[in-house]
């Protein structure tokens, strides 16, 4: 039997605003993992896309004076382009306004209905359109949503609910214990699951009030709750591409603010529809800027294009994983990124490669690199992986100085040969993060043709 491809997904971004580096973070993590597995000889299918329904998106369209469909068509393109600009090798870009996706979620709805797990009831609660969710007591601070600090809207209407029975909860708990990473998020998911608010989950909204969403089959008064529609993208995309056999996903990457949707609601929907559960849910922290959550009103949003303008694509990819700690919250500053860029890329890696090739060229030393296999680092911990690689670079520099490798004797020759091979391995390990640089280092080593990799930043 053919080996199943490794299936990796990111969350799908709301198209209410331009992409910022928070979502780019996820795209890059998926891409790094894809390239890492590919380097090990595995085949990978990588999915990303955009979440185009919901109140938040509809409101943004109105504010822009556009029809929702025209608006989402425009903004979604920017997300897809962002992926291309950062050399992200996704296999498919799903959009939830795709009619095939909508048809798929309607079929799933009917399946849930036939399984008898949906019920309609009157409901009232406090809604945050930022989260697209009703908030429980613990999630409200001073009458506002603790994530978005937005005023909450009191909503009372009749909606469809998914019933999560005890047996299902037990299955979800077992799954969380084995699948949610890192530990802090696993614990958090368990705590949320055990709170009372998860016996029933609202899955629809009043059509009259919200309008913009997938119609609930057989009930003209309702549209699907945006999360019920969006979560199914991970399977609808496979169906659209005739790849349903790739389910269950091997790795799903999401941010810490959407853990409960992926660790509770998604498994509940999957179990109810008879699907297997994903193998791993990787939860990343937030990128803050100036010590605060990025937000338009504070004016501290970092755009991906600012990064590219300053450092180029390759260095930006490196710096995001080297300068930020993926599973924790991290504070972005230009000063830190500048410092890492000059210290580790322009000086560290760049100088080492230039210097070593210069020496090798003098004595025309060309090791047989074909025998070198890159050893893999602890790839789930991206930052640690790059810190370790950087230590290798420093060791090479020290070795060159301590052993005076520039002297042209036989023993120096073998020493230099070892360093050239080490750089070949470093290129291999850098490949998932900086694929073009890795390729270029290999070319330079093979052709003994040194060209600057990372020019020092101008002040
Ligand atoms: N549309 C939903 C996801 C549906 S998945 C079926 C959504 N969209 S979002 O655009 O608000 O967020 C997309 C991803 O970006 C989330 O995983 C979120 O955590 C991440 N980020 C948004 N802001 C972020 C930071 N400031 N830092 C890091 N990631 C953050 O949620």
Q: Which residues sit in consecutive blocks of at least 5 with pLDDT less than 50?
A: none
Quick one: CATH superfamily of the largest domain?
HUPs
Number of helices, where a helix is a run of at least 4 consecutive DSSP H or I residues: 15
CATH architectural label of the largest domain:
3-Layer(aba) Sandwich
Question: Which fold name fills CATH's third level, the topology of the largest domain?
Answer: Rossmann fold
What is the percent of helical residues?
40-55%
Question: In percent, how much strand structure appears in the residues?
Answer: 15-25%
Main β-sheet, in a few words? Answer: 7 strands, parallel
**Shape designation:** elongated
Number of strands: 18
Radius of gyration: 25 Å
Distance between the termini: 57 Å
What is the number of independent domains?
2
**Ligands, deduplicated:** 5'-O-[(L-methionyl)-sulphamoyl]adenosine
CATH class division of the largest domain: Alpha Beta
Helix/strand structural class: alpha/beta
Mean pLDDT: 93
Can you describe this structure?
- The chain is an alpha/beta fold and about 450 residues long.
- It folds into 2 domains: about 280 residues, 3-Layer(aba) Sandwich (Rossmann fold); about 140 residues, Isoleucyl-tRNA Synthetase, Domain 1.
- It is built from 15 helices and 18 strands.
- The strands form 5 sheets. Strands 1, 2, 3, 4, 10, 14 and 15 form a 7-stranded parallel β-sheet that branches.
- It is elongated, with a radius of gyration of 25 Å.
- About 40% of the residues are buried.
- The model has no long low-confidence stretch (mean pLDDT about 95).
- The site of 5'-O-[(L-methionyl)-sulphamoyl]adenosine (MSP) has 19 residues, from β2, α1, α8 and β14.
- 5'-O-[(L-methionyl)-sulphamoyl]adenosine binds next to β2, α1, α8 and β14.
């Amino acid at each position: 039997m053919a080996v199943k491809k490794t299936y990796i997904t990111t969350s799908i971004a709301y198209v209410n605003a331009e992409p910022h580096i928070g979502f780019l973070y996820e795209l890059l993590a998926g891409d790094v993992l894809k390239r890492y597995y590919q380097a090990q000889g595995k085949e990978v299918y990588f999915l990303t896309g955009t979440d185009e329904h919901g109140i938040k998106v509809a409101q943004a369209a109105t504010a822009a004076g556009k029809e929702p469909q025209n608006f989402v068509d425009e903004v979604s393109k920017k997300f897809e382009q962002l992926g291309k600009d950062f050399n992200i090798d996704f296999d498919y870009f799903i959009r939830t306004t795709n009619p095939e996706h909508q048809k798929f979620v309607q079929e799933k709805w009917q399946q849930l209905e036939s399984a008898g797990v949906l019920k309609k009831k009157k409901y009232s609660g406090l809604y945050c359109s930022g989260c697209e969710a009703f908030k429980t007591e613990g999630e409200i601070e001073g009458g506002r949503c603790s994530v978005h600090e937005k005023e909450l809207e009191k909503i009372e209407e009749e909606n469809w609910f998914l019933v999560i029975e005890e047996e299902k909860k037990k299955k979800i708990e077992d799954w969380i214990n084995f699948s949610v990473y890192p530990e802090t998020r696993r614990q958090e998911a368990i705590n949320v699951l055990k709170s009372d608010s998860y016996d029933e989950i609202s899955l629809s909204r009043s059509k009259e009030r919200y309008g913009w969403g997938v119609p609930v089959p057989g009930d003209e008064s309702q549209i699907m709750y945006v999360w019920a529609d969006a979560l199914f993208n991970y399977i609808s995309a496979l169906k659209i591409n005739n790849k349903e056999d790739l389910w269950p996903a091997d790795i799903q990457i999401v941010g810490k603010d959407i853990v409960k949707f992926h660790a509770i609601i998604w498994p509940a929907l999957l179990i109810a529809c008879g699907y297997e559960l994903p193998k791993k849910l990787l939860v990343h922290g937030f990128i803050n800027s100036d010590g605060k959550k990025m937000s338009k009103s504070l004016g501290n949003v970092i755009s991906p294009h600012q990064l590219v303008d300053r450092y180029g694509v390759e260095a930006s990819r490196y710096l995001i994983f080297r300068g930020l700690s993926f599973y924790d919250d991290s504070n972005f500053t230009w000063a830190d990124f500048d410092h890492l860029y000059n210290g580790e890329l322009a000086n560290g890696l760049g100088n080492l490669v230039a210097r070593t090739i210069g020496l090798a060229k003098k004595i025309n030393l060309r090791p047989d690199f074909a025998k070198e296999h890159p050893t893999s680092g602890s790839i789930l911990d991206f930052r640690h992986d790059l810190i370790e690689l950087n230590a290798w670079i420093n060791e090479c520099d020290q070795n060159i100085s301590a052993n005076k490798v520039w002297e042209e004797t036989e023993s120096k020759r073998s020493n230099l040969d070892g360093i050239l091979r080490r750089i070949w391995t470093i290129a291999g390990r850098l490949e998932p993060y900086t694929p073009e640089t890795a390729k270029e280092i290999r070319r330079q080593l093979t052709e003994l043709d040194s060209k600057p990799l990372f020019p020092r930043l101008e002040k």
